[in-house]
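ok here's Beta-ketoacyl synthase chain length factor:
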Amino acid sequence: MQVGIEGVGFWGDGIPDWDAARRFLADGTLPAEAPRRPAPRMLAPNERRRAPDTVALALVVAEAACTAAGRDPAALPSVFASTHGELAITDHLCEALAHDPLGVSPTRFHNSVHNAAAGYWTIGTRCLRAATALSAYTATFAQGLLEAAVQVAAAGEPVLLVAYDAPARGALGQVARSEGLLAAAFVLAPPAPGVPTLSLALSGPAPAAAPGALAARYAANAMAPMLPFVELLAGGHGRAALPAGPASSLHVELSA
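and the structure:
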């Protein structure tokens, strides 16, 4: 199966955009100043402050990918992939249920659901296209990429893929580990001249490769399995194998 890569967005602690990520991979350069938290333009200032980290992450990279691709966000079906979702809020709700059940916040609850970021995105962009939210533990990114690519192949139209994870908190952090903020988004489309082409194939498990600079920097984040793919795109060509399940890998090859 083949798809084109029309646009990329990236955000990680200390590396707040795709250009900065490529510079870091090229020569180790980090921005002199980087925001501590993503600030998606589609949210008003008050909403930005209230939005959970996962929502802010997902929206800022989705905006960047659509801008880079020159695509109208309202026209794109989307796939949102997160290993754990909003763990900080989930931990807070579990604590509240254990100690003060009547004090559970409705606002916190609606931000805890796994499709919260997809909901904010479709409302903010006035997008009426289908939105999918999925999780598959360490295979989350590979399964999200596969889902988006299948949608592109089936419908013959572009699809937005957004992948993100944030820090774990409290007791959940002992069993669902994740540190820092990390997200990336990609506009996938049918192959076309002048657009980098990605070939995908499922196969058996692949041996672990040595981590690149981004993979080493964000190794503790739950979305770290995505980073060999991000580094592949930054290099412009080559191959990578992504964990796709207990006994499978998603092999990807990029050509100009």
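+1. The chain has one domain: 7-195.
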